[in-house]
TrEMBL record:
Organism for this UniProt entry: Octadecabacter temperatus
InterPro entries: Glyas_Bleomycin-R_OHBP_Dase, Glyas_Fos-R_dOase_dom, VOC_core
Stated name of the protein: Uncharacterized protein
Signal peptide: none
Record-linked Pfam families: Glyoxalase (PF00903)
PROSITE patterns associated with the record: VOC (PS51819)
Length: 128
């Protein structure tokens, strides 16, 4: 057996419409086709791949110490993202990964899920 990669992340939310808007408007992803499950939800796509599956729940999920601390996406356009986050007044940090040519933009979605968006460190040129 050979693993080929991570397929998707499944996120339960009581704020489905807000979460879809966040992933579309803030991160520039798009919602798209989803199987006709017997529960509400949305699939959020990167290109042709539905990488974030949102599942609507009636009440916000209780979370004291999550076992999954974050999920990460890879992107280009560091300046565009940080400007978009600043304009939307979304708290974030830009952090270099020691010893690796990666810069992370750390932020939270509408439900407080930690996400980091990874960029090649070359995109930091002229920003420091």
């Amino acid at each position: 057996m050979k693993m080929l990669g991570l397929d998707h992340v499944n996120v339960r939310t009581a704020k489905l419409a807000e979460m879809v808007r966040f992933y579309e408007n803030v991160l520039g992803l798009r919602s798209g086709a989803r199987p006709d499950f017997p529960f509400a939800g949305a699939w959020i796509y990167i290109a042709e791949n539905p990488v974030i599956h949102l599942v609507e729940v009636a009440e916000e999920c209780a979370s004291i110490e999550p076992k999954i601390e974050h999920f990460a996406l890879r992107a280009t356009g560091l300046t565009e993202l940080t400007e978009r986050l600043t304009q939307a007044d979304i708290r974030h940090s830009v952090d270099r990964v020691p010893g690796v040519p990666i810069v992370q933009v750390n932020l939270e979605d509408v439900d407080g899920n930690h996400i980091h968006i990874d960029f090649h460190s070359d995109e930091m040129a002229g920003r420091e």
